[in-house]
Amino acid sequence: MKLKPIVVAATLLASLAAHAQNQITVVNFGGANGNAQKKAYVEPFEKATGNKIVSVEYNGEQAKIKAMVEAKNVTWDVVEVESPDVTRGCDEGLFEKLDYSKIGNKADFSPVAVHECGIGVFIWSTVMAYNADKIKTAPVTWADFWDTKKIPGKRGMRKGARYNLEFALMADGVAVQDVYKVLATKDGADRAFKKMTELKPSIQWWEAGAQPPQFLVAGDVALTTVFNGRIDAAQREGKNLAITWTGGIYDLDYWVMPKGGKNRDVALKYIAMASSANEQAEYAKLISYGPTNTKALAKLDKTVLDKLPTSAANSKTALQFNVGFWADQGEALEKRFAAWAAQ
Amino acid sequence: MNPSTTVLPATAAPPVAGVLPADLAGQLKRAERRKRLLSISLTLPLLVFLVVIFLVPIAALLMRAVENPEVANTLGRTGAALAHWDRKSPPPDAAYAAVAQDMAAIQEQSDAGALARRLNSEVSGARSLVMNTYRALPFDSKLSDQQVHQHMLSIDPRWDDISYWQAIAKNSERWTPDYLLAAVDLQRNAQGDIVRVPAEAAAFGKILLRTFEISAVVTLFALLLGYPLAYWLSTLSARQANMCMILVLVPFWTSILVRVAAWIVLLQSNGLVNRALMGVGAIDEPLALLFNRLGVVIAMVHILLPFMILPLYSVMKSVPPTYLRAAVSLGSSPLAAFFKVYVPQTYPGVGAGGLLVFILSIGYYVTPALLGGADDQMLSYYIAQYTNVNVNWGMACALGAVLLFTTLALYGVYRKVVKSELSLG
Questions:
Q1: What is the CATH code of the structural domain delimited by B204-418?
Q2: What is the pTM of this model?
Q3: Chain B contacts of A203, Cβ < 8 Å?
Q4: Which CATH class is domain A4-123+253-310?
Q5: ipTM summary value
Q6: Which of residues 301-360 of B touch A (CB under 8 A)?
Q7: Given this model, what pLDDT does residue B139 score?
Q8: Which SS3 state, helix, strand or coil, does residue B118 take?
Q9: Which residue, B261, B266, B256, is CA-closest to B289?
Q10: pLDDT tens by residue, B120-173
Q11: Least CA distance to A343: which residue of chain B?
Q12: What's the longest Cα–Cα distance across chain B?
């Protein structure tokens, strides 16, 4: 009987150690996307493997990852990052190189989703949206977005240069496939900013992804740029918001593992599961972001597919976000945007 | 005579004149020193705390604003090869060979990434140029300098663009004024002369001005609203004043995000304010109260108002009401008495409250980000952008340093004008 407390303590310690080993921290952007991930990935993973997942929300601040890696105290095991950050972080040695043999067959994924340091979480799109209760004639092109006579009212746009410069060039008549070619030149950038100046008095800027659907519902703006999943979430709440897919810019988020995480095996298992066809199909049913695993598409019915940025109709005139271009030009263009806004 | 006084000199010290006082002085000094050491050791934890929490980070921030190790650490040979280059003609083949050799010697990919990021913030496009080349290295060691040159051009033709070479040459030193210059819209050109940045890239001067302008407007309105309220509070009985003070303090204890969200609900185009105004027929179209300068100022004044009211109130409580009565009984009109007798006595509170609100406003970030447009963002928004989005910490630190020094300079001016230390009532 004397031994009992020691035994209890030892068992407790052992279970604690085991507990600590099998717990990983998964970081995503929260919101509707975070909720969908919880149902499609986190809960099934915990049930299937017995590992515990701590979910953390962040706003994409790469500074936190950089600080963790530099201090060699990495507490985030799996992080969802935006596409420019996966390339940049990989170049700067912030992320582990992924072992694809433990994730799945590379050929199953759409080619853009496969990166040496990350694998695509989903495909999303920045598109034009409007409140169908208030606007009778739907906007068709980005030129319509710029035409405040045809469709009066304010325009919601993301604060910053990214996406907006591309939209401005499309509104100015540049063909989708030439957008980045034009924007890379000095004249092209001038042209984009000049077009932005035309619309400037009518622009209402948004900062967080949740704002544009609110703007539309409140009637603050007539048209807005928005992440397509946010409109889907609003529609599920019964709001009559609609998307114009013409000239949308699609992009991917990626799973990465910050370098030096303590639970790499479990982290990789989580990524593998979140990249499997079944789970991605479940996720796409909860929020209309496109699966990166092409086999997931076969598991979805037409009503779900029609809402995804990846469907044939929606992606017909879509522009793929050019990560390389923004990694090179982003800092200069964002600074120019700040100067432009101050004029 | 008291026997003890006669005994003491004989036992304590030999009866030599002058020795005793000197010894006593020494003892006193020692005791004094011990006391001082004790008091210093008592405050030592606080001093250490201040240094660690306050001074070290600021020093580190200032260091980072002028540090420039990326190129110097990785491209040492290139720096030497470019030392005598005139920065106008095409660089010598030896420089191409040196770059190839230097980059092939980079052990950690993170160093190559840092080099790419540093050069890219100087010349857009350098990131892909450096990383593409880094991935293609090392070359065959038997190549001549000229062959290396040709080979690099075949990897990326941009290696013939002189601007990338100018960036390398300019940044081969370990310290740089470039971040600080950029933070005030200046830059060094290829020859090292300081010039203005082109108009389309000149942003930070205007942003800094805007930061101080918004802060000044917020301080003014906080004073205009806070002064009468604090005066009214100071005339109430203690019980009533406490009740009202709670009303001032409850919003003060509420999360800033909650208050920002509440203002969105109130001010949006079919929000409470606009509907009320339209309901009484004051306006036909909803007013634009949000996502512009007006919304930012309204919310910031509300959030910062307690910082104005509290110092004002504590000063006003200490002003005896008899002075005002005396002035009136001596024949002054009540209004003149208020402005000539009462108001000057509250200047310390006005100064303290104004300074507090102004300095807090300067660092505001969330409120303008959520309630303002693209041209209502204050400097801290861009500091956050450089920290989190561009991960260009040198630039973020330089902007922080500029903000710190202009604020200190303004505080210096304030002290010159007010001729008194900051007092909180």
A1: 1.10.3720.10
A2: 0.86
A3: 373-374
A4: alpha beta
A5: 0.84
A6: none
A7: 82
A8: helix
A9: B266
A10: 998 999 999 999 999 888 888 788 888 999 999 999 999 999 999 999 998 988
A11: B375
A12: 111
